[in-house]
């Protein structure tokens, strides 16, 4: 893997919140005396009743118990809106960019955000929602999604957002899973020029919901929908009469703020529970420092609010910091592959945060789509969701960032609430493909996968765990604390187990090597998937690659590579041989793929992550047991791969 260090420019480092020296000092303090550190940084949010206990956290078997700031009280919506009104009432809180570039964007001020959130909160109260009740949100990326989240927070209801691309089955399961009192949805969700019929999906989902669940319907397109009197409520109509001064409820720090299901890359999604105080402190602090956000900057995270990235870095983190956050309804390739950069130019975006899947897709479309736009306002670029292949990192850095913008490769999970391992851009020199160093208070450890013992040498390779709690940590799995303990605390006792593998290099930098379940063991050599995939992607004719192990008579496991070629490149036996020897020279003979299958598309979650567990089943010839595929973006990809499996028979 490339090891070249890219330090921040002098100009960037000078104006950054955190420089190298400050990082070292603050990090050391954060692990030497976490109580004192978080007592201080807990003050970045406004408390109604200040906390006196910083934390009580236990990773002990049989007693997994995580509490932060537990005797403090606060309200998240008041922190994200009301406390800014004195100084920022007329500042834009949310810039909304619609799916169709010919439609008008919206600029929503903090005063407007306050009004709309209060109205939505009042509507929910009138529909019978009380503190602690659950509300499922199934909306397009429209401002009402943010109003709905903040309205729940305002009255102390717990929201559970379901991505608008999910099927009625997935939606129904999530409504039942938390006994939701209200479902907030829209008529249709425009995306990439097409429309998903959200209301009719919701109607279908509710056929399988036996408890009483009311529906609040936002009219996004005005298209035709069916209506069930008594159950369905019209948002536009109720909004006219709703009170625009709904009081913010006093919540305990450990009251749940939201439930959110993980992406389902590795199995059945888990209902992750985040609470009020610690989550907000952590989301806002990581937003400010990782992105080096300064007052007046325009911040754009391209995720959907249906993912944790959208919770922490479109809504809660930025708004708690009084930022201007951009919310985009569309997709990167509509009307063409230049949309991201058109939006960056149009709204003068300063920090841009997206996923490797988008970067890889856009990289294959040609640089003209980027270079025709003025991206001079960009100061920083971010990546999240999967390991970013060095090839994609370099393209992002030079073509998008003009070599001027630090890249923050942020490693974290739905479970962690916010970034755990990431460069702080003014402090830490980056290496393409490495998430670099831990955030304040985060203590990563590398364990030997078999013995479970901590590898204390600087250079290490193994399983990535966390030694101690941080305020943004999830508290439980909704309704199933046992599953929480079993999933995260039972394989390696006394640690939080991330499920990811990693390597720590001689400089103490962390490299995520992929999921532990995906590690391939070739003739006794353990290999992460990321390294082989990155080597393949580095070849000029390869757009994307996914690598899994399959049973091999001699080696134990062989390497099976699914390869998507660049637009216009034809597969051939010569190219297959070329790729084999390419990987052999890039990494070594041990990493040479045994089988290569040409894959027009790869199975991905709706959030764009490659689902290797399905690819492994196909490679193993075990189609009967594909597991939970409900979060798959395009199931037809799987049929195609099964049909064209590399070593049939
Ligand atoms: P499930 O837990 O249901 O299998 P998931 O793990 O994909 O789904 P998320 O919480 O959305 O659900 O994703 C977190 C995972 O994404 C991490 O554990 C890691 O594998 C991967 N990931 C996120 N950011 C990075 C990054 N910067 N580098 C490498 N991997 C990353
Ligand atoms: Mg996971």
Descriptive overview:
By secondary structure, the chain is α/β, with parallel strands linked by helices. Among the domains are: 107-252, 3-Layer(aba) Sandwich (Rossmann fold), CATH 3.40.50; 523-644, GMP Synthetase, Chain A, domain 3, CATH 3.30.300. The chain contains 21 helices and 30 strands. An eight-stranded mixed sheet has the order 12-11-8-6-7-14-15-23, sandwiched between helices. Strands 5-4-17-16-18-19-20 form a seven-stranded mixed sheet, sandwiched between helices. A hairpin with an 8-residue loop joins strand 4 (92-97) and strand 5 (106-109). Helix 14 packs across helix 16 (390-400). The structure holds adenosine-5'-triphosphate and magnesium ion. The site of magnesium ion (MG) has 4 residues, from loops. Magnesium ion binds next to loops. It catalyses: acetate + ATP + CoA = acetyl-CoA + AMP + diphosphate. Keywords: Acetylation, ATP-binding, Ligase, Magnesium, Metal-binding, Nucleotide-binding. Residues 82-469 form the AMP-dependent synthetase/ligase domain.
Question: Which ranges are low-confidence, i.e. pLDDT below 50, for 5 or more consecutive residues?
Answer: none
Named at the architecture level, the CATH assignment of one domain is 3-Layer(aba) Sandwich
Helix content: 25-40%
Number of helical stretches of at least 4 residues: 21
Kindly provide the name of the CATH class of one domain: Alpha Beta
Binned strand content = 15-25%
Spell out which ligands are present.
Answer: adenosine-5'-triphosphate, magnesium ion
Calculate the terminal CA-CA distance, rounded to whole Å: 36 Å
Please give the largest β-sheet: 8 strands, mixed
Report the count of strand segments. 30
CATH topology of one domain: Rossmann fold
Radius of gyration: 24 Å
Major β-sheet strand ordering: 12-11-8-6-7-14-15-23
Class inferred from helices and paired strands: alpha/beta
Give the overall silhouette. Answer: globular
Average pLDDT confidence is 96
Catalytic activity: acetate + ATP + CoA = acetyl-CoA + AMP + diphosphate
Cofactor: Mg(2+)
Protein name: Acetyl-coenzyme A synthetase
Keywords: Acetylation, ATP-binding, Ligase, Magnesium, Metal-binding, Nucleotide-binding
